[in-house]
Specification:
By secondary structure, the protein is α/β, with parallel strands linked by helices. The protein has two domains: 100 residues, 2-Layer Sandwich (60s Ribosomal Protein L30, Chain: A); 155 residues, SPOUT methyltransferase, trefoil knot domain (Alpha/beta knot). It contains ten helices and eleven strands. Strands 8-7-6-10-9-11 form a six-stranded parallel sheet, with helices on both faces. Helix 6 runs parallel beside helix 10. The termini are far apart. 46% of the residues are buried.
């Protein structure tokens, strides 16, 4: 499978059947598997996590994603994404018993030295899990029933993207549309920074920003483009009509494109103190999501 310039997240899931989580009340019968060789092929899903180019190729070719840390791992287990395996440092085994005891998926236990040889960095929290990517969702499916949405354009920073997904889920956003140039929400750093919430919030890619706007408007969604332009009205002064709303956010630096700003129903800005022109996109997005949660 070829790489995509937008870090595409349409990897084909490997068919391992149903999600590997046991029904409530049942406990796993197979004990965790101890592995002493960092080159063991069973650990291949976790290899070289710091090599971004290699990981993007591997994850999309094999249809997998990685959750790093206790909370993202638990979020993966409770998400619609099938669990493929868990990798845990031996000293973290007891702390992750709630996941391990109720998982059908293989659980691999390694020493700290083997873990760091596999992933190639110091993994302080000592636990990872591998999930299977799901087939891509059509944008129409995300928009159809949503009342609050984000449309993101050119957000190529995985940590900003992960932060926005965490904020969006926490403040009641129902779905996210990703225009070209956005990073892969299911890349490890995005999943980690989102605390796994990206795995619980529907998202879809749109052909371009204009197509996304046309889709939103066709479904009766009022769109608000966020801009640092001092000529735009402050958010608190906007007169926003309609029950269904979407906020548009652009990348650090360039912000939203001219097409996005022209196509939005309204534009608005976050009022800033003198000498400061704008906020980081994740911070600006948090303010916008709070406004969405309040119904503006």
């Amino acid at each position: 499978m070829s790489d995509r310039t937008d870090d595409g997240d349409t990897g084909h899931p490997v068919d391992h059947g149903m999600a590997r989580v046991l029904p409530t009340g049942q406990r796993r019968r197979e004990p965790p598997v101890r592995i002493g060789d960092p080159g063991d092929p069973r650990l291949g899903d976790y290899a070289a996590l710091t090599d971004a180019a290699l990981r993007k190729r591997y994850e999309h070719q094999h249809g997998v994603l990685i959750a790093e840390g206790p909370n993202p791992v638990r979020a993966l287990v409770s998400s619609p994404y099938p669990l493929r395996s868990v990798l845990v440092a031996e000293e973290r085994l007891a702390a992750m018993a709630d996941v391990i005891d109720h998982s059908r998926a293989p659980v691999y236990v390694v020493t700290r030295a083997v873990l760091e040889a596999v992933v190639r960095f110091r993994l302080h929290q000592g636990v990872l899990a591998c999930g299977e990517r799901r087939p891509p969702v059509a944008p129409q499916e995300v928009v159809a029933t949503a009342r609050r949405l984000l449309l993101l354009e050119g957000l190529n920073d995985h940590e900003n993207l992960g932060t926005l997904f965490r904020t969006a889920r926490g403040l009641g956003v129902d779905g996210v549309l990703l225009a070209p140039g956005c990073a892969d929400p299911l890349y490890r750093r995005s999943v980690r920074v989102s605390m796994g919430h990206v795995l619980h919030l529907p998202f879809a890619r749109v052909e371009d920003t204009v197509a996304g706007l046309e889709l939103l408007h066709a479904h009766g969604v009022t769109t608000i483009g966020l801009t640092p332009d001092p000529g735009a009205p402050p958010l608190e002064e906007l007169s926003v009509g309609g029950d269904r709303l979407a906020v548009l956010l652009g990348a650090e630096g360039p912000g939203l494109s001219v097409a996005a700003l022209r196509g939005a129903t309204l534009t608005g800005r976050i009022a800033m103190a003198p000498g400061v022109d704008s906020l980081n996109v994740a911070a600006a997005g948090a303010i916008a999501c709070y406004a969405l949660a309040r119904g503006w």
